[in-house]
From TrEMBL:
<dbReference type="Pfam" id="PF00205">
    <property type="entry name" value="TPP_enzyme_M"/>
</dbReference>
<protein>
    <submittedName>
        <fullName>Thiamine pyrophosphate-dependent enzyme</fullName>
    </submittedName>
</protein>
<dbReference type="InterPro" id="IPR012001">
    <property type="entry name" value="Thiamin_PyroP_enz_TPP-bd_dom"/>
</dbReference>
<dbReference type="InterPro" id="IPR012000">
    <property type="entry name" value="Thiamin_PyroP_enz_cen_dom"/>
</dbReference>
<comment type="similarity">
    <text>Belongs to the TPP enzyme family.</text>
</comment>
<dbReference type="InterPro" id="IPR029061">
    <property type="entry name" value="THDP-binding"/>
</dbReference>
<feature type="domain" description="Thiamine pyrophosphate enzyme N-terminal TPP-binding">
    <location>
        <begin position="8"/>
        <end position="123"/>
    </location>
</feature>
<dbReference type="InterPro" id="IPR000399">
    <property type="entry name" value="TPP-bd_CS"/>
</dbReference>
<feature type="domain" description="Thiamine pyrophosphate enzyme TPP-binding">
    <location>
        <begin position="384"/>
        <end position="530"/>
    </location>
</feature>
<dbReference type="Pfam" id="PF02776">
    <property type="entry name" value="TPP_enzyme_N"/>
</dbReference>
<feature type="domain" description="Thiamine pyrophosphate enzyme central">
    <location>
        <begin position="197"/>
        <end position="324"/>
    </location>
</feature>
<keyword id="KW-0786">Thiamine pyrophosphate</keyword>
<dbReference type="InterPro" id="IPR047211">
    <property type="entry name" value="POXB-like"/>
</dbReference>
<dbReference type="InterPro" id="IPR029035">
    <property type="entry name" value="DHS-like_NAD/FAD-binding_dom"/>
</dbReference>
<dbReference type="Pfam" id="PF02775">
    <property type="entry name" value="TPP_enzyme_C"/>
</dbReference>
<dbReference type="InterPro" id="IPR047210">
    <property type="entry name" value="TPP_PYR_POXB-like"/>
</dbReference>
<dbReference type="InterPro" id="IPR047212">
    <property type="entry name" value="TPP_POXB-like"/>
</dbReference>
Length: 564
């Protein structure tokens, strides 16, 4: 008679994660997950990455998932450990990244008794997770673990499992198979011939076509170029799709929105047809008022969510464009594209002057441009939230061989350095660069120690303006005086050295290039603390009169307050 082999629930969990391609689990040990920690230790092929704050672990997992599209994992113990994961998990949710969070829970007999560290984890994670279960019975563990992993991959979101301490060590059959999904299956995405004909008809009738593309079009670069050429259409990208086409490309006008370019805004205002490809660009005020719209997206929930759509096509952008461009006739009239290129040249000259200024304090535009020009050809950039986002959006050159990500839809601070830890572990041979403000860095700066201890040669570039610059701008553009945005910072370069890494403090432009080169060639974790001009303003592509008036009122209030 055959004997059924069994092993602990935690061993089954770790082996399942391994089969799904997971090689790193981020978090902090704790009593409620001690059994899971020991299972990871004994497994030996999945590595636990100890961080100094669970939020860092969730950000690191989110970054891995964004950059690869594959499952990433973070853990937290019961109570505070689980709660600390939430900000990073919301970042993953809003940017559609497949992340699994496993949190410790009290033994089943103690749940509901107001026990020490007891929280209702199912309620806590109900909004952030596409799959959210407490593992109450060991015999259901294999199915629930597999469902959680598959749900995160298929729905491109967060899955959560709460693991009671007593269930963790119970036995389950060891020979249960799991069936990982790739997370990329889309089924039959061929649009109806009538829908394609309607799209072709709109394109043929239009005289001023603009293409707005997002991260959903990354795999369709060649088809996109064919579309642009046949339509004589300028190209505008979302910030997350910065690597789709370089901003210097002959068809590219750059980004859209507050952090975008004036040529992009003018092209949108003047077009008669907007073709949206794999983008859910969230700012409704930047969509055209009178143009026809064609939208292509594999997620039907994105169709028509931001603006009225005349032709909607649900499917992978690459597959749809493969069919669309075949029957698309070459447009003869390129006057609109020519005018857009002319406006882009004027804009680029204006921006180029700022990028080359050798003033003291250092201009943030110069810093962003210098980082991009000196970075490796296959570098990975992770951008934080704040004024740094604006400087990076407009002035950091990124090529299609590089990778770029940020906290896009959540736009939370402190993402980029934590994300760089995850990125460097996933891509050990590539240069990983975090671009961050002093406010964002100081939120989770303690985890620079994690990079040092793991011997991860991440490069952290701090745009140090000694304040929450974007918040100050938001206050003043609303007519309020600057209030509580200034920061008194420690010496970040000295902090990096105290942690065991390398650090440079740069305050003059003539020091910048040499310091960047030294950091970029170092094999250590590095912090480059660059003191940039605190008075350099992030200007919208077009300044509205109300914004100028409110800014003037705010400055007058600040002047009066300073004289009180």
């Amino acid at each position: 008679m055959a004997v059924t082999k069994t092993h602990k629930v935690v061993d089954h969990i770790v082996e399942t994660l391994y089969k799904y391609g997971v090689r790193h689990v981020f978090g902090i040990p704790g009593d409620a997950i001690n059994d899971l920690m020991d299972a990871i230790r004994r497994h030996g092929k999945v590595e636990f990455i100890q961080v100094r704050h669970e939020e860092t672990g969730a950000f690191a997992a989110s970054a891995q998932a964004k950059l690869t599209g594959k499952l990433a994992v973070c853990v937290g113990t019961a109570g505070g450990g689980a709660i600390h994961l939430l900000n990073g998990l919301y970042d993953a949710k809003l940017d559609h990244a497949p992340v699994l969070a496993i949190t410790g829970q009290l033994p089943r007999s103690e749940i509901g008794n107001h026990s020490h560290q007891e929280i209702n984890s199912t309620a806590l994670f109900s909004d952030v997770a596409v799959f959210n279960q407490t593992l109450f019975a060991s015999d259901s563990a294999p199915e629930i673990i597999q469902q959680a992993c598959n749900s995160a991959l298929i729905e491109k979101g967060v899955a959560h499992i709460a693991l009671p301490a007593d269930v963790a060590t119970e036995q389950v059959e060891a020979n249960i198979r799991c069936h990982p999904v790739a997370g990329t299956e889309t089924g039959n995405t061929k649009p109806l011939a009538s829908t394609l004909n309607n799209a072709l008809s709109l394109i043929e009738q239009a005289e001023k076509v603009v293409v707005l593309a997002g991260i959903g079009a990354i795999s369709a670069r060649q088809q996109l170029l064919t579309l642009l050429k046949k339509c004589n259409a300028p190209f505008i990208r979302s910030l997350k799709a910065k690597v789709l086409l370089p901003d210097e490309h002959e068809y590219s006008l750059g980004g859209l929105g507050l952090l975008g370019t004036r040529p992009s805004l003018e092209a949108i205002e003047n077009c008669d047809l907007l073709i949206m490809l794999g983008t859910d660009f969230p700012y409704k005020e930047y969509y055209p008022k009178n143009a026809k719209v064609i939208q292509v997206d594999k997620d039907i929930r994105h169709i028509g969510r931001r603006c009225p759509v005349d032709v909607s096509i649900v499917g992978e952008v690459s597959e749809v464009l493969d069919q669309l461009v075949v029957d698309l006739a070459q447009k003869d009239n390129d006057s609109f594209l020519t005018e857009c290129r002319h406006q882009k040249m004027k804009w680029s000259r204006e921006q180029g002057k700022k990028e080359n200024l050798q003033d003291t304090p250092i201009k943030p535009q110069l810093l962003a441009r210098s980082v991009g020009e000196l970075a490796n050809k296959d570098a990975i950039f992770l951008c934080d939230t704040g004024t740094v986002t604006a400087w990076v959006a407009r002035h950091l050159p990124v090529t299609e061989q590089q990778l770029f990500t940020l906290s896009g839809n959540l736009a939370t601070m402190a993402f980029s350095m934590a994300g760089a830890i995850g990125a460097q572990l996933k891509f050990p041979e590539r240069q990983v660069i975090a671009l961050i403000g002093d406010g964002g860095f100081s939120m989770l700066m303690q985890d620079f120690i994690t990079a040092v201890n793991r011997k991860l040669p991440i490069k952290v570039i701090i745009f140090n303006n000694a304040k929450f610059g974007l918040i100050q701008l938001e206050q003043e553009s609303s007519g309020y005086p600057d209030y509580k945005t200034s920061l008194k910072n420690p010496d970040f370069a000295e902090f990096a050295r105290l942690c065991g890494g390398k650090g440079w403090s740069v305050s003059r432009p003539e020091q910048l290039v040499d310091a960047l080169k030294e950091a970029f060639t170092s094999t250590d974790a590095c912090v480059l603390d660059v003191h940039v001009d605190p008075d350099e303003l992030v200007m919208p592509p077009k300044l509205e009169l109300s914004q100028a008036v409110n800014y003037s009122i705010a400055k007058a209030k600040e002047f009066l307050n300073s004289n009180d």
